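A.,

Following up on our hallway conversation. Structure tokens first:
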């Protein structure tokens, strides 16, 4: 009976040792897996931080672009009015009439008002076609 006890004790000892080895192997595998997951999480966090910086940069660019668009809209707001005036005055007829008036002595302010010219257009017509001032 002692041989059988020793034999069972030996088998149980071997089984316990194998179980312990399996547990150590499982712990080792879990440790490696945990390290891989940790490395991957660090990489994802780094990517998220880079994406956050890029998003902030894009938002900044968007704000600057919005400001530029508003500035351009403000600068060219008068263009619509000038185009409407040009459409109202017709093709070259109003320029011809403005030239005739300038030759008769009309000043730039009157040309602009009467023919729908811009101030710079009226000044140009007056300089090119107005009466020459004598000293």
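Then the amino acids I'd put at each of the 135 positions:
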């Amino acid at each position: 009976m002692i041989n059988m006890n020793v034999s069972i004790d030996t088998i149980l000892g071997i089984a316990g040792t194998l179980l312990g080895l399996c547990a150590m192997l499982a712990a080792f595998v879990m440790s490696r897996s945990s390290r891989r997951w940790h490395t991957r999480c660090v990489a994802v966090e780094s990517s998220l931080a880079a994406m956050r910086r890029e998003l902030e940069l894009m938002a900044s660019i968007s704000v600057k672009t919005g400001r530029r668009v508003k500035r351009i809209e403000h600068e060219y707001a008068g263009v619509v009015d000038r185009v409407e005036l040009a459409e109202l005055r017709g093709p070259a007829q109003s320029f011809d009439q403005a030239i005739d008036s300038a030759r008769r002595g009309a000043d730039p302010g009157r040309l602009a008002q009467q023919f729908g010219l811009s101030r710079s257009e009226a000044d140009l017509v007056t300089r090119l076609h107005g009466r020459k001032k004598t000293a």
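The chain has five helices and no strands. Curious whether your intuition agrees with the design.

B.
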